[in-house]
Every structure is written in structure tokens, then in C-alpha cells.
Amino acid sequence: MSEDNSPHVITLGTAGGPRWWRYREQKVRAGISTAVVVGGAVYMIDCGYSAGRQLVEAGHSLDAVQAMFLTHLHSDHIADLASIAMFSTFEISDEERGPITLIGPGDRGTLPTVSPHAKVPPRPVSEHSPTPGTIETFTRLVEANATDLNERILDSLRPSPLDLFQAHDIALPEGIGFEPNENPAPQMAPFVVYEDSHVRVSAILVDHPPMAPAFGYRFDTDDGSVVISGDTAFTPNMIALAEGADLLLHEAIDLEWLTMKFPDPTSAQARAIRSHHERSHTSISDALAVARTADVGQLALHHLVPGTSGPSLERQLSGETGLNAVVPDDLDIIPFGQHR
């Protein structure tokens, strides 16, 4: 933990992608999750695998968590949401506190279009409700564990996660022209989705096709500001969200790795995977362009794809002299505010 009470970020997990990244003896990073700490209050952004355990390793507990924000509902961003919900019945000890606010995307409303690389259209999962938003996703995860929870609720008098968390779907501003398949990230202004005595949190749509809606978040405090991109390709919306921020945590994909892994994709699946990464994520050069144009104080690259690409991305950053840019490790503490 930080020795003072200044606002800071803790990189709970810095790997992106629905994988347990481990190649030979390369370092293992936890799934994507970030904690913003302001005045002793903790705000979690995304819940990648091991997020709950990493929060404890960082010296915090769920008692300190005021709100959680999901950038989007890809599995690598919510992998630990179910375990956090289940363990909350034991980990939250302050009986006087209110529920943790959980904020994230609403129902997509329509399925993505089928990949042009498909030979036969795949059958979607949960055809009766195939694109649930944050409220329904959280409720389904809890209900899937009903056998366990009902035993603990009835026999051990433990609280229900449905009482310990209050989930909200983000309502998009009217008239912006959002359409999940054709216009997932129309140019727009950031809008406030949460506010308390410590932070004001704004959101903006980002471009992560075919996932939609997907959001980046900005945390403004009395002492400084931090922006988390979520997963996105280059979009002017991120420049608008990050304008003048003290710290920008932006996703980055190692394009050198991508072209080496899929030099000439021959299978339909390989072509679809490479196409997704190329159109849905941000290169180092584009992340730097966002940071420079937005005039941020510091850039930290995270949500690394692959999760073992830290040394490669550091090498690619080595020539950068005009911007304070780093590739943090898991559990790094990055102060923000009053340092520019």
C-alpha cells in the first residue's frame, strides 16, 4: 500500500485475453483489473482472473471497495466477478456499510454479425437472452451458485451477494447514434456515471468491435485524474476522455507477436482471430498518439496481449523520449495528481 494518503492506482492485474498466459519460464501476469485508491476508498475497474486475490495482496479488502466498474463484458474482464460475489459473504465484515455499487454496460440488444470467415453460422449461447447487460450478468452468476449460497444464507445466516452489491446498467445519452454493429463508438462527450465525496467518474464509448457497448472511464478527484481505456482500437473518444489527465492507463497489443503468431493464417479460425485483434485493439504507436494529443502527464500500458509481452513492449517503448511512458507490473503503485 502507499505510505501516504495521496491518490494512486494499483495495477492488480495487467494481462489481457481469456488465457492463463505462461510460456516456458516467462513471468505470469494476473488478469486485467485496476484499483483506484482515493482517501482510503477503493474503486475497482474490471475483474480479470485473480482480481479478488490481488486486491488482498495489495493490502485492501472488499470493505474498502465503494464501487466497481466494468469496461465491457468480455470474459477476461469479468472472470473473477463470480468469485468476488461469492466470497463477499465472508470478506465484507462491515455490517453497517451500504452495498458496493457495480456499474457496467447494458444489454447489447442484438447479436454480433457472423464472421465472414465462418463456413457454417455458429449457434449462439443462451438464445432466449443472448446479450445480457451488467445487471442480468451479475444476477445470473449469483443464481448459478444458488445451491452454495442458499445453504450459507439459510444455515449460516450469511448475507446474499444480491444484497451486498447493487448492479447498474449504464444508460447511454440520447441521440448519440450508437448502434452496436454499425456505429459502436460514435464521437461524443464523456458523461458522468458515478459520483461520491472522493471521485467523479465519467464514461465514454470506445471502439472494441464486435463487443458493444464498451467503455473507458475517467476518475476525477480534488488532487488529480486518471483514465482507464478499457479495450479499444484507436478512437477520438479516448482523446476526449483523457484530455489533460494526470495518468492514462491504456491497453496495448504487441503487433510484432501477432504477425509472428499468424504470419499467413490458413484456417478460418486463425484468420478470424487475427482480424479481431487488428481491428479491436491499440498498437503502441496509437496509444502514444492518444496520450500526446490528450496531453496526459503519464502513460502506462496495460491489458497486455499477449500477457507475456512486457519485455517486447518495453523494448518498443525504449526510444520514446517525449512522453513519460511505462509498462507496469502487477501490483505496481502509480501515484497521480499534483506531480505535473
The largest β sheet comes out as: 7 strands, mixed
Task: Note the quaternary state here.
Answer: single chain
- Catalogue the unreliable spans: none
Helices and strands, in N-to-C order? EEEHEHHEHHHEEEEEHEHHHEHEE
Mean pLDDT: 92
Output the radius of gyration.
20 Å
Q: How many runs of DSSP E, i.e. beta strands?
A: 14
- Termini, distance in Å? 22 Å
Query: How much helical structure, as a percent, in the residues?
Result: 25-40%
Form type = globular
Number of separate helices:
11
Taken as a percent bin, the fraction of beta residues is: 15-25%
Task: Give me some keywords for this one.
single chain; 340 residues; alpha/beta; seven-stranded mixed sheet; 11 helices
Provide a descriptive summary of the structure in words.
It is a single chain. The protein has 340 residues and is an alpha/beta fold. 27% of the residues lie in helices and 21% in strands. It is built from 11 helices and 14 strands. It has helices spanning 51-57, 75-78, 81-91, 134-143, 146-155, 161-164, 236-242, 255-261, 268-280, 284-294, 310-317; strands at 8-13, 33-38, 41-45, 65-69, 100-104, 165-169, 191-195, 200-205, 215-220, 225-228, 247-253, 298-305, 325-326, 333-335. The chain has a 7-stranded mixed sheet. A hairpin with a 4-residue loop joins strand 9 (215-220) and strand 10 (225-228). Helix 7 (236-242) packs across helix 10 (284-294). The chain is globular. The two termini are 22 Å apart. The model has no long low-confidence stretch (mean pLDDT 92).
